[in-house]
Design goal:
Elements: H1 3-9, H2 14-39, H3 46-64, H4 67-89, H5 102-120, H6 130-151, H7 156-159, H8 168-188, H9 191-213, H10 219-245
Helix pairs in contact: 2-3, 3-4, 5-6, 6-8, 6-9, 8-9
Length: 246
């Protein structure tokens, strides 16, 4: 029986219907893997194969109206970019592609996904996937930015040999970005994006805390201050939430 017809006929059987969707995703992934390997046994063409899989997942997601397959498409796109830029980098450590290390090119790709998400609203077939793409792209972008704020655009060997304080401008830039995203979300009344920005703002604060105070503070005092900060931030967050809900 056609999977689309089954979903229409047995709308109540959500788990059973989605199990067919997962089976389709696995079968597509395995088929593309063997198809790609038949042309090149090395990793050099894997990125293109994963990109083809992403396209197929996207088309199947639209046809079956499946958000699970759409998530598979997004994950495959990100994996394709990571894999192929690794193959294209060509240097001894495969660290840089077009002058960008992994965190920077992942942040770049996250920004591209955010831009592309806006296009989904213009088409009836993809409008249902807009929210999923919009928020997951922001999470990926901000997470990549968090790693970038720690590493800068440096290879691991260089990063491990310098003091973290020398990357202060990257941390400051990321903090300014988070404030800008938060203000944008408040202006657009996008509560979900606002909450995402707040969560990453807190992650940013604790990342800086571990960066600059872990080696300089007594560990007992360190975790005592960490626990106190959790309580203070939680209290203030609850007060802000109440004011916004009034």
């Amino acid at each position: 029986m056609d999977c689309k017809k089954r979903k229409r006929k047995y709308q109540y059987a959500f788990l059973a219907n989605e199990s067919f969707t997962v089976l389709i995703a696995l079968a597509t992934g395995v088929s593309i893997a063997y198809f790609t390997r038949s042309f090149d046994a090395t990793y050099l063409s894997y990125g293109f194969g994963i990109f083809i899989a992403a396209g197929l997942y996207g088309l199947l997601a639209i046809y079956l109206d499946s958000k699970i397959l759409w998530v598979c498409a997004l994950l495959a796109l990100i994996t394709s970019w990571a894999t192929q830029t690794y193959a294209w980098s060509g240097d001894a450590t495969h660290s840089y592609f077009l002058g960008m290390n992994y965190p920077l090119r992942m942040a770049f790709f996250g920004g591209l996904l955010i831009t592309c998400a806006a296009v989904l609203q213009r088409f009836h077939q993809t409008k249902t996937f807009y929210n999923l793409t919009w928020y997951s792209s922001w999470i990926f972008f901000l997470l990549s930015g968090l790693f970038l704020s720690v590493s800068g655009n440096l290879s691991y060997d260089v990063w491990s040999a310098i003091k973290q304080g020398k990357l202060f401008m990257w941390a400051l830039s990321y903090t300014i970005l988070l404030i800008a995203v938060l203000l944008y979300a408040v202006k657009k009344k996008d509560d979900t994006l606002r909450d995402i920005a707040i969560i990453f703002f807190l992650l940013n604060i604790y990342t800086r805390y571990f960066e600059y105070f872990w080696d300089r503070t007594n560990k007992g005092l360190f975790f005592a201050l960490l626990a106190l900060s959790f309580w203070l931030i939680g209290k203030k967050a609850e007060q802000v939430r109440r004011r916004l809900s009034e």
